[in-house]
Amino acid sequence: MKGFECVIFSLAVMFLKVRCQSTKKYVKFQSGCSYQDFIAEVKSKFGFPDSAELLILDETDTEIEEDVFVELVEANPDLCLKIEDRLLDKSLSSMDNSSTSSLTDTMSPSSDNEPWSPPRQNHQLNTNINRKKSLSHRSRRQLVNLIVSEMTERHGRMPSRKQKENYALGIITAFPSLRDPFSQKGYEHFYDAEKGTGYLAWRLKTLSRKVFKRPVKEA
Prior knowledge:
By secondary structure, this protein is of the alpha+beta class. The chain has 9 helices and 4 strands. This is PB1 domain-containing protein.
């Protein structure tokens, strides 16, 4: 009888496909678990800090809220869920005009021992921020892409751990509202050196995959 119960238990476990940036992983979702249980599992799987406020979207970028989550994934077990960091969106939305203007007003060379300073070449991003007073998911990706582009231009495709930390530190130095008050250094959501995770790390991994992708052989 016990063996039969174990079979029933194993069948009640689903493995949901989850995408964060360019990384896809299967996350275990057990029958009887809640939305918050799943969020905790995602944080552990992708290396998010406990303080991260995650947003779950479906394949059409529609937010999946807590009250419908369990029913939706049980009815659509093959759905690929998309994860976004709500905390960063809120922080970007709360940036004041002085922080925004500094994005174009300053540009100082960064050595390996100095925090990154924001570049001038981002007029379109500044226009969007000034007009909308907030950033969409797309604009946030644009900000990360801009920073990584500047990083790889100066340091190559494989910047050192220290260089990536300096860029992450530079972001929250230039924009204090982007600091995570619940993490040790405040910038782990951009780059966590211990785990090798964060928005900068994920973007660098995406670029590496594109560079090293083998061409398709002709028949």
